[in-house]
C-alpha cells in the first residue's frame, strides 16, 4: 500500500479514503456500501474508530475483503482493533499529545499481535488540530489538540514525525469535527514535509475536499459525511472509464 501511495504521490495523484467505524456498520450492509464506495473516486477503505466494541473489526474486514477491490487499511483507535485480515495498518503514534499511552503504550501492547503478522505496517505520526469543539479522539486519548493559530508548532510536530522515521503524517481535527484542518495549515505543513500527508476530520463537502487536495493533502479521509448522508457518494462519482 505504501509503495503504491508513494508512486501515486510522485505522479501528483490524490487519494480518497472512506473511513468505516466498525461499530456503525453491520456486516450485512457491507455489500451495498462497497458498491457505493467503488462508484466514487475512493482509492482506499480505512477501518477504525476512537472506541470500537471488541471483536467488531475482524468480521467487518472479512466482509469488506469479500466485496471490495480497494486496499483495506486499519486506522485503529486502540490495540483491540488490529486484525490480520486487513491489507495494511497505520501504526499510529499520537505525536501532538503528551499521553504516553498513545505515544508508545498501545504500540508496545500491539507487538505480540504484529510480530508474526503479514500486515503491512506503516509508521504514522498522528497530529490532532483544534477544531472548535472537543471530539471523541480528544476525550478518549485525554490529549489536547494543537491550537490552530500555532501553525509553526503544527509544522514542526509533523517534521519531527518525519525525522523520527515515520512514513506518513496524518493531520486531522478528529472524526465528526465541526471544522476541517484549514487549507493554510495543510499547505504550511506540506511545504516542509518529504513524506505523504493524510488529512481528515470534518470534511463534508466536495469543495472542502478539493481545498484540502489543492493545499497539499495527498490522501483525504472522510467518514462522518458518508454516514450521515449517503447521497454524498453521488457528488464524488468517478469519471466513466476510470
Ligand atoms: C477521522 O479523519 C477521519 O479520524 C474522518 O473524519 O469522520 O469527520 O470525516 P470524519
Distance between the termini: 20 Å
The unique ligands bound to this protein are: SN-glycerol-1-phosphate
Fourth-tier CATH superfamily name: FMN-linked oxidoreductases
Number of strands: 8
What count of domains describes the coordinates? 1
Mean pLDDT: 95
Quaternary assembly = single chain
Question: How is the biggest beta sheet arranged?
Answer: 8 strands, parallel, barrel
Task: Provide a descriptive summary of the structure in words.
The protein is α/β, with parallel strands linked by helices and about 240 residues long. It has one domain (about 1-230): TIM Barrel (Alpha-Beta Barrel), CATH 3.20.20.390. The protein has nine helices and eight strands. It has helices spanning about 1-10, 30-40, 55-65, 100-115, 135-140, 150-165, 185-190, 205-215, 225-230, and strands at about 15-20, 45, 70-75, 90-95, 120-130, 170, 195-200, 220. An eight-stranded parallel barrel has the order 1-2-3-4-5-6-7-8, surrounded by five helices. Strand 7 (about 195-200), helix 8 (about 205-215) and strand 8 form a beta-alpha-beta unit. Helix 2 crosses helix 3 (about 55-65). The chain is globular. The two termini are about 20 Å apart. Bound molecules: SN-glycerol-1-phosphate. SN-glycerol-1-phosphate binds next to strand 8 and helix 9. Its cofactor is Mg(2+). Prenyltransferase that catalyzes the transfer of the geranylgeranyl moiety of geranylgeranyl diphosphate (GGPP) to the C3 hydroxyl of sn-glycerol-1-phosphate (G1P). It holds the Pfam family PcrB. InterPro entries: GGGP/HepGP_synthase_I (IPR039074), GGGP/HepGP_synthase_sf (IPR038597), GGGP_HepGP_synthase (IPR008205), GGGP_synth (IPR010946).
